[in-house]
């Protein structure tokens, strides 16, 4: 099913008009709840011709039963089937009447409200409610509908929805959370039971009728701001460990504030969970930071130990261990910088390549190291062993692919290319050099410590595959799954 923007463009509405209608639809849950009604948004299917209308949007109330069981968006009724919509469009006035809801065969009370953008009517908002039969509405219903009527007049005058600079937050309170109506002097003339309950949880028990919220001990700064600028204000207010989200929406008449609707939602539990998550994330980052520091300390101690050794072979072995430790430390350093447990593996690869190149490369044997592709973000439990694997493969390529006794005779520049790709299910890592190639025999099954580490990490820890071949050098390909494991999901 096409969205509002696509439908609006298909019938020739211009971008500013589409933006106005999108803002209306973004905030009309409030209108539907206040009017206990389904709302449908109509616009002529052909520009300048009101013989047919296209339904651009639909919303159902949370305060009442819907009259429309099916999705009406995209339907194209002829004007004769929706005469009240046609009259409201032609006259530019609010039209009231009754009509049969075809889906249920019931008579409904219909109110059609022309939606004005600047000086022109660009759509019609139709309100459909079940008629009151045999009973009078209570005070709450009466006041809610009065508030809706206030917004309806603003829609007809082009004063609602508000400008593009004001957007509704995702957690914006709804009518059922708690609502109050203020007069032109910002004094309360109606409060819903849920609004009163929220005040009581904050320790505020005064008489609300005729009082300002500030006189009750409530922070009314967002209300004053909304009255001053004539735009909705949303703000969190905390008192006695209770956190509420307040949204003040002013009523306008010719640009002058004549009152306001105040919605109040208790978000204490949500914020407590948010703070726990923030605290947990901070703790995890601190752990990664300390692990990184400890690994760097171990690395420094091994370096000091290596300087005391007389055996060149022993020093080389310690240096390999230092590089392995530093590759793990890089992952923890990246994780300590953010709240996510996923890391940009491409950034880690670039740092690993630089680290290994600086540690092994020399002026006598210059080797160009190239990184190609984007591996995206991967989970920490994949990044850590894979960083070790890549370190071993780079060390192996630099140490054995370009032996000193054959380096001087080379005509082609020495190069190692790291290629990366992520298709959403597998992370593919390739290390290719243009060196001397593989010796006879299966190197993967050889006894060297580096390749033993690589084989164990790829096949056991990462549940992946690895292949090696000679083709004008050595090519190593590693493929590991990157989808979350069942254990991680549990």
Structure notes:
- The protein has 490 residues and is α+β, with helices and mostly antiparallel strands.
- It folds into four domains: 4-136 and 150-156, 2-Layer Sandwich (Beta-Lactamase), CATH 3.30.450; 175-266, PAS domain (Beta-Lactamase, 2-Layer Sandwich), CATH 3.30.450.20; 269-339; 348-490, 2-Layer Sandwich (Heat Shock Protein 90), CATH 3.30.565.
- It is 40% helix and 27% strand.
- The protein contains 13 helices and 17 strands.
- It has helices at 4-10, 15-35, 83-91, 139-157, 193-201, 221-229, 268-307, 312-336, 345-360, 380-400, 404-407, 449-461, 486-489, and strands at 38-46, 49-59, 95-101, 106-117, 120-129, 179-182, 188-191, 233-239, 242-253, 256-266, 342-344, 367-373, 377-379, 414-422, 426-433, 465-470, 474-481.
- It has a five-stranded antiparallel sheet with strand order 2-1-5-4-3, with helices on both faces.
- A hairpin with a 3-residue loop joins strand 14 (414-422) and strand 15.
- Helix 8 (312-336) runs antiparallel to helix 10 (380-400).
- The chain is elongated and about 100 Å long.
- The protein starts with a helix and ends with a helix.
């Amino acid at each position: 099913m096409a969205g509002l923007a696509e439908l609006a463009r298909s019938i020739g509405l211009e971008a500013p008009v589409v933006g106005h209608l999108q803002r209306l639809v973004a905030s009309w849950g409030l209108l539907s709840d206040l009017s206990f009604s389904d709302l449908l948004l109509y616009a002529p299917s052909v520009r300048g011709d009101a013989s047919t209308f296209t339904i651009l949007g639909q919303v159902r109330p949370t305060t009442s039963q819907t009259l429309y069981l099916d999705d009406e968006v995209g339907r194209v009724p002829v004007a004769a089937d929706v005469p009240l919509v046609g009259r409201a469009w032609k006259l530019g006035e609010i039209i009231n009447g009754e009509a049969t809801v075809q889906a249920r065969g019931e008579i409904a009370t219909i109110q059609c409200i022309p939606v004005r953008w600047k000086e022109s009517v660009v759509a019609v908002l139709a309100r459909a409610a079940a008629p009151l039969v045999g009973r009078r509405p209570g005070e709450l219903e009466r006041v809610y509908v009065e508030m809706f009527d206030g917004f309806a007049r603003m829609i007809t005058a082009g004063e609602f929805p508000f400008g593009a600079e004001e957007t509704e937050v995702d957690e914006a309170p709804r009518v059922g959370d708690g609502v109050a109506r203020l007069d032109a002097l910002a004094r309360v003339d109606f409060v819903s039971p849920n609004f009163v309950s929220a005040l009581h949880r904050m320790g505020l028990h005064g008489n609300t009728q005729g009082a300002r919220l500030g006189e009750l001990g409530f922070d009314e700064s967002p209300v004053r701001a909304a009255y001053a600028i004539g735009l909705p204000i949303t703000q969190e207010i905390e008192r006695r460990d209770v956190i509420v989200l307040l949204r003040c929406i002013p009523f306008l008449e010719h640009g002058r504030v004549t009152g306001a609707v105040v919605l109040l939602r208790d978000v204490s539990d949500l914020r407590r969970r948010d703070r726990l998550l923030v605290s947990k994330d901070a703790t995890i980052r601190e752990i990664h930071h300390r692990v990184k520091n400890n690994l760097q300390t171990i690395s420094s101690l091994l370096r000091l130990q290596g300087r005391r050794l007389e055996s060149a072979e022993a020093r080389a072995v310690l240096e390999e261990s230092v590089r392995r430790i530093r590759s793990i430390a890089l992952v923890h350093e990246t994780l300590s910088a953010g709240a996510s447990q996923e890391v940009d593996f491409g950034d880690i690869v670039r740092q690993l390549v630089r680290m290994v190149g600086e540690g092994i490369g020399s002026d006598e044997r210059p080797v160009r190291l190239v990184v190609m592709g984007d591996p995206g973000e991967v989970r920490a439990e994949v990044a850590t062993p894979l960083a070790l694997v890549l370190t071993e493969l780079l060390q192996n390529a630099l140490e054995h692919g370009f032996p000193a006794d054959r380096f001087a005779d080379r005509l082609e520049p020495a190069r190692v290319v790291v290629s990366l790709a992520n298709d959403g299910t597998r992370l593919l890592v390739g290390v290719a050099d243009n060196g001397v190639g593989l010796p006879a025999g299966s190197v993967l099954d050889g006894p060297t410590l580096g390749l033993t580490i690589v084989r164990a990490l790829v096949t056991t820890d990462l549940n992946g595959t690895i292949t090696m071949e000679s083709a004008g050098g050595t090519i190593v390909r590693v493929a590991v799954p990157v989808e979350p494991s069942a254990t991680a999901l549990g």
